[in-house]
Amino acid sequence: MRRSWLYPLLLFLVAFAFRMLHLIGIRSLSDYLILDSRFYFEWAERILGGDWIGGQVFDQSPLYAYFLAPVLWTIRTLGSGLGIDSFSQNPIFWVRAFQAALGAAACVLLVRVARRVCSPAEAYLAGFLAAIYGPFIYYDTMIMKTFLAVIFSLLCLLALFRSEGTRRNGLIAAGLFIGLTTLVRDNFLLMFPFLLAGLIPLMKERRPKMILRAAGWMLAGTAVVILPVTLRNSLIAGEFSLLTAGGGEVFYIGNNPTADGRYRPPCMNVSGTVQCVRADPEYEHDDFRTIAAALSGEKLSPMQSSRFWFRKGMAFVLTHPLDYSLLLGKKLSIFLKDAEIGDNYNFDLFRQVSPVLYLPLPTFGLVMSLALLGMVSSMRRWREFSLLYAMAGGYTATVLLFFNFSRFRIPAVSILIIFAGVGIAWIFRQAAATVRSAVREGYPAGIRAAGILLIGIAGTAIPLTWSLAKGPSTILLTVQHQVQLGDLLRQTGRVKRAVREYGKAKYLLGDAPIEERLDLLGGTSPDTYREILQEERFQHGLNFRIVHARVYEGLGQAYAELDQMDQAAESYEESTRIFLDGTAILLRLADIYDGMENLPAAARIREQALKIEEDFGTRYDLAGVYFRMGDPLKALQILRNATEDESNLTPQDRADFHFGLGLILMDGLNRPEDAIYHFEASLSLAPDHPQAEEIRKNLQRLRTHFRNR
């Protein structure tokens, strides 16, 4: 009786401890959100702001955003109500901590699933492996949807096991969890026939009527979850949209003439101009739709664009069957490799900044190898394991339809871990059998048993060695990793080392003499490397330029933190020359020139920013620069131009507008009467203006001046 709660509790505590120690070790990175993580966080903030429904078809799987929003609200509310400052000041850390607890609970849930087919020893070996599995620790604490797919897919399996294929409530529950997992990973919807096939061997009666009934109840549960999303999308779009509007785009990325099994946004020749899809969820889907409209010659809705790209992908599959077969082989090879292919963040890079992930924790290669051993050793019990076979194999097949990121395979990994527990238990049992045979039956029996053990270990070592071998990479991917490593090091205070990592990226890009860093080329000759570099520049187009610019943006931030402002300004200038997207970098560069008292350069950069985007704050600062340069008339003209579109000015902006005019008129143009008017207008608009005390002193001084004249 005692063990029924003690072992699960110990497992939970071990799993939670590893996750929290990792989280504490990277605490300075809590707010470091990029790409999809930033996308989901901003989506959750919009939900909290009252935008529950949204105004367009979902481009990304929606469930995580609707999970994240109430969790954020609860943490902030508790922080405010209980006076816990860290809850209010650093809510993202506590979101990660909550996810760590759920991830630890998932390890216990995995044991519950494993106990349906495994011995207690096998199940708890699998649970402990899940508790210390490096990628689980990494993904469980990421602001990302991955961990939810593990939880819901395991709950789905548990419900199916309990249903035994005939119990209505269990089948409906399984359908509900299929739907929930699908709202995290769209491809999970394709698992329905695989799960049904895996359920059939467990059914006491396998008559067609019973199978159809089971399928019907599962489908009903799935529909309960998915139909509200479908209705919402379809009402907004005015056309049928099952889950998201990006399925066709994702399919095309994974299946086209230049696809290599990884995420590689396409570049297309459109009317003689190369147009590229940017590798950022903020722009990716819009870019796809823009290119689709240009290629088709007509304006397309999101779903029409998705169908356009799906048809192009299918055209490649059907007209190039041999190339597609080779591509599937590449995808499977990538799927089974130990390397964690990152998109938002990179697991291998986090291992360099996380004390926990730096430990020799098990990764995919070891789990996959032990799982193969477990599958072979449990083949006689295949009926009992049929659901697990269906889950692992079927899910792998659905991923191969698209492309690979390592987080995509995580639901299958949880099943492989169960088989790995079986494999580890087999090794222990066979080792014990070897000793017993040698002692009781003599050396011949012991040698036979030892031979079986060695064959099993060799069968594990061979796929492990293959999985650990590094696969082919690209210059672009390597540079991206260098930039991410530099960012991580900078965020954790190791700024000088970050500069070195950004510097390596410069060599890889050919911005520093390649011959000086031949160690970075992996044995490739400089001439060959330059050819490959030029080819990738052309193939990846805009995305190559974006990553190239990010190298210098990172260098600029690092040099600024080291107070090396000349190098910071030079790096930012180079970043804007390579690729400029928005005004954020320009404004950081202008601030640096301000601090260096290089006022002409600060004015030039702010004027460039205003040409890209009209912004009152930028205009106000530009006027201040010209005022400091001794040109109050120019400053006055720049500031007055802000009123050309007053609808864009907030009350605070208008208060600042009058405050700035007052200063220029008072100190630069000696027009005290006009200055008084604008100071009074500023206070009228914002009585609690940050410079209210200074404004009142100026008014008192000006009024005293008039009285004494």
Q: Total strand count, please?
A: 2
Number of helices: 31
This entry's quaternary arrangement is single chain
Structural class: mainly alpha
Largest sheet, described in full?
2 strands, antiparallel
Rg over CA atoms, rounded to whole Å, is: 30 Å
Residue fraction in strands: under 5%
Distance between the termini: 96 Å
Helix coverage percent = over 70%
What strand order characterises the main sheet? 1-2
Mean residue pLDDT:
88
Which overall shape is indicated by the principal axes computed on the Cα atoms? elongated
Q: Spans of 5+ residues with little confidence (pLDDT < 50)?
A: none
Characterise this structure.
- The chain is mainly α and 709 residues long.
- The chain is built from 31 helices and 2 strands.
- It has helices at residues 3-25, 35-48, 63-82, 85-89, 91-114, 120-132, 134-140, 146-163, 168-182, 192-199, 208-237, 247-254, 284-296, 302-319, 321-336, 347-350, 364-377, 386-400, 410-441, 443-468, 475-491, 495-508, 526-561, 565-578, 584-595, 599-612, 616-628, 632-640, 651-668, 672-685, 692-707; strands spanning 267-270, 273-276.
- Strands 1-2 form a two-stranded antiparallel ribbon.
- β1 (267-270) and β2 form a beta hairpin.
- α13 (284-296) packs across α14 and α28 (632-640) runs antiparallel to α29 (651-668).
- The longest helix has 36 residues, at 526-561.
- The mean pLDDT is 88.
